[in-house]
Design goal:
It comes from Dictyobacter alpinus. This protein is α+β, with helices and mostly antiparallel strands and 400 residues long. The protein contains 17 helices and 15 strands. It is globular and about 60 Å long.
């Protein structure tokens, strides 16, 4: 009975809470991996999976753990019908579309413009000697990059920015408040109309942007439907923006928590790619993945009944000592570092290549151009903890 009481003190998804409280969740993960690695919460009827090996199975084995027909994830949300909420064979067609958008060539083609966007934002905050990492850098940077990738006209930036802000974690939770649900539906309808119009314009006057490519896209000789194309654009806005925003925010939090690491990266910028992987492992932007058991399935010595909803905690798997020696140490030279932050298998995060590129561009620039970065004292740091892990505000000071 004590174990169950301890289990119920664990993570409370979709709540705002101090960062210290959220970080204590890693202690809960450790206890659960040791004592109840596959745990059924009788109150919520959810199954929770904590160990690296078991989490990998859940996110990889789509024949037993489906992405379809999950309330609030692949049903009743903007994710419905998108690549992240489809199983094979339908998944393959949509994933091929994703691959067209995120080929290494397509992503690297953006690197010059990504650098320009990063420099514009840094130039804007330099004179003040202070900034809020979230509102001044972490949010606008990936939003502007996604707008650039899609080919959103400059005149539409303000509305695109509001959608990116309102889409924070969109689809990752289900509100019980009618007005919130209605607002969400209205926003998604507006986005649908916007991207439908943009696709039609590009069919008439193509440009060198992703929207133009999508407007004539074919997969296996089959044209994609208007809904599939527009849903993909909305998914890019949400997934491509959110992952990078949280990566940058978490990186800057860790650089202020471990200033010796920040200084080392200034001296040895070649370590940044490995540092980004450790940031993704140590404090991941995405904390768990949701699946539905397609049949009774054995995992971790437990039988999960068919149609049960399973939460696979990649944030716990990333701290599993069976996979990561000394897992609670922030080690920017960790090798190997097979973290599960971006998932695994056919549903590997669509935004991962872009998030890594953006991190490798802007984080060295921030460390090189802003010296002595420190958090503003006595300002509490709050996070919204759900599928995505979102620091709400991170005010810092610096010199240059």
């Amino acid at each position: 009975m004590q174990q169950q009481n301890e289990s119920n003190r664990g993570f409370s998804p979709f709540q705002f809470q101090p960062i210290e409280q959220t970080l204590q969740t890693f202690q809960w993960f450790s206890m659960m991996r040791a004592n109840q690695p596959v745990y059924h919460d009788e109150q919520s009827h959810l199954w929770h999976v904590f160990r690296y090996e078991d989490v990998t199975k859940v996110v990889t084995d789509y024949s037993h753990f489906s992405s379809e027909s999950i309330p609030g994830f692949s049903e009743n949300s903007f994710l419905n019908g998108t690549v992240v909420a489809k199983d094979p064979p339908d998944h393959r067609k949509l994933r091929n579309l994703v691959n067209q958008a995120f080929t290494p060539r397509a992503v690297n083609h953006l690197s010059g413009r990504v650098t320009e966007i990063a420099q514009e934002l840094i130039d804007g905050i330099k004179p003040a000697g202070t900034m809020d990492v979230i509102s001044d850098i972490a949010f606008p940077f990936p939003a502007k990059v996604i707008a650039e990738l899609l080919g959103v006209p400059d005149k539409d930036w303000d509305i695109f920015r509001r959608w990116a802000s309102g889409g924070e974690g969109v689809g990752s939770e289900v509100s019980t408040e009618d007005n919130t649900a209605q607002g969400q539906q209205s926003m998604e309808e507006n986005m649908y109309d916007f991207f439908s119009r943009l696709l039609a314009e590009r069919r008439e006057s193509p440009r060198e942007d992703l929207i133009s490519s999508l407007s004539v896209a074919e997969i296996d000789g089959e044209r994609l439907s208007e809904r599939e194309l527009v849903s993909f654009c909305i998914l890019l806005l949400a997934a491509g923006q959110e992952t990078t925003k949280n990566l940058i925010a978490n990186a800057m939090y860790l650089f202020t928590e471990y200033p010796e690491v920040a200084e080392r990266l200034r001296q040895e910028p070649a370590l940044m790619p490995a540092a980004i992987e450790e940031i993704l492992r140590f404090l991941p932007p995405v904390w768990f993945t949701i699946r539905r058991a397609t049949e009774d399935v054995q995992i971790g010595g437990q039988t999960i009944p068919a149609n049960s909803i399973v939460m696979a905690w990649n944030s716990s798997a990333n701290r599993d000592a069976a996979q990561f020696p000394d897992p609670d140490t922030f080690n920017i030279q960790r090798d190997p570092n097979r973290h599960l932050t971006f998932g695994h298998g056919i549903h590997f995060c669509i935004g991962a290549p872009l998030a890594r590129l953006e991190g490798k561009v802007i984080l060295p620039m921030l460390l090189e151009q802003l010296k002595d970065i420190k958090r503003v004292p006595d300002v509490p740091i709050n996070v919204r903890a759900g599928i995505v892990y979102v620091i709400q505000s991170l005010p810092v000071t610096f010199s240059h």
